[in-house]
Design goal:
It is built from 1 helix and 8 strands, in the order αββββββββ. With 123 residues, it is α/β, with parallel strands linked by helices.
């Protein structure tokens, strides 16, 4: 009985040692550095533009800027970011892309989707 316990202990130590020696080394892996993106919107209440697709990677820094001749409110859904615009005064919001997926940027007063932000996993 005591020999079986000793054998199990030795086997566990050998397995732990093998795991330690053969574990993957993630410190040397290089990922692409985070990038910075700025997307600008010029709102025209009388003209509807086709929605744009904004593509970024997880971890990238993003700036959304907009200008409008009238009061306006932009909302980036799921990120729950809001951009309030005064007439003819540019406004900007900055954030880090922390969630993978597709997110709509909506112009509330016009009931219009301005863009879809696509956040991809970093390669």
């Amino acid at each position: 009985m005591r020999a079986a316990g000793l054998l199990i202990s030795i086997a566990a130590l050998v397995l732990a040692g093998l795991w330690w020696v053969m574990k993957p080394n993630t410190a040397g892996q290089s990922q692409a550095p985070a990038a910075q993106h700025t997307f600008h919107f010029q709102l025209h209440p009388a003209q509807a533009e086709a929605p744009r697709t904004l593509s970024v990677y997880l971890g990238d820094q993003v700036a959304l800027s907009a200008q409008s001749p009238a009061m306006a409110h932009l909302h980036l859904h799921d990120y729950d970011l809001h951009l309030y615009l005064a007439p003819d005064y540019p406004s900007q919001v900055h954030f880090q892309a922390k969630t993978v997926g597709r997110f709509e940027l909506e112009w509330h007063e016009a009931g219009q989707r301005l863009a879809t932000l696509e956040v991809y996993p970093r390669p």
